[in-house]
Design brief:
It is built from 4 helices and 6 strands. The chain has 139 residues and is of the alpha+beta class. The strands form 2 sheets. Strands 2-5-1-6 form a 4-stranded antiparallel beta sheet, with helices on one face.
Length: 139
């Protein structure tokens, strides 16, 4: 099973990396954690995200269902997504165990979510999505 671990760093994170206080030790700790995940054969992907001022939200939360673009930064957001891991795990508990080992400073939250596999969809949904089937069989 694949799981996504979503890192919400907490208050004060959402500033450009060149302005953020990032102790070298913290970067080394995270690198060591990522290497342990990789050495265990669990790491499929890992990335950090740029400051929200370099992003946008495309919202359809209106009565017309029309795209409304909200440019970053997202100051009204309580939590800003800082990065993610995609891992392979045998169970939700194993994914939680890995998330519990992420080196932190004390303000972070990590959301653990199982990735929906194409073959888990109802057959009628699979039949209605031939492109997604072709993508799923490539991975």
């Amino acid at each position: 099973m694949r799981f996504m671990l979503l890192m919400y760093p907490g208050p004060g994170f959402d500033e450009p990396f060149d302005e953020a206080e990032m102790p070298v030790e913290a970067v080394e700790e995270m690198d060591n954690f990522n290497k342990r995940l990789s050495d265990a054969g669990k790491l499929l992907s890992v990335d950090g995200l740029h400051h929200s001022s370099e992003g946008a939200i495309v919202s359809f939360r209106n009565k017309n269902k029309k795209a409304v673009v909200i440019d970053g930064p997202f100051s009204e957001s309580k939590e800003v997504l800082g990065g993610y891991w995609i891992i392979q795990a045998d169970s939700l508990q194993e994914a939680i165990d890995w998330a519990s080992q992420v080196p932190v400073g004390g303000t972070e939250q990590i959301e653990v979510r199982r990735i929906q596999e194409f073959d888990e969809l109802p057959q009628e949904a699979q039949d209605a999505a031939p492109f997604e089937r072709s993508v799923a069989t490539q991975s």
